[in-house]
Known about the structure:
Helices cover 37% and strands 7% of the residues. The longest helix is centred in the middle third of the chain and has 15 residues, at 64-78. Strands 1-4 form a two-stranded parallel sheet. The chain has one domain (17-106). The N and C termini lie far apart (40 Å). The protein contains four helices and four strands; from the N terminus they run ββββαααα.
Amino acid sequence: MPTQVLAPASDLPVANLCTTQITVTADGNATPLLCHDGAVNVQAWKFYAGVSASVLGIGLNPTEGQVESAICDDFKHQHATKTEETSGYKLAMTYYGWTFNLDPAKVVCP
């Protein structure tokens, strides 16, 4: 699949993109997030764009603190569940190639 910017991102992905059918699970998540080769599943990205918009749109070079703030923003304003935000974070981490590894379920929000 050709490289393209996926909204709400404003940067091109570091990762490859693919598209495969998603399945929505009983807890409101969608799978698979990534295709078999580790590429970002565009269908999953679009699914999470509404609920994890802040973390998906943060960009290529945020600090860990900026990502934590984006996670908290998704919890507060997008009403993301911890499970949904964990999936959104995994998509963003792969898309942007971030090297830090947070657990959104353990982020403490003010």
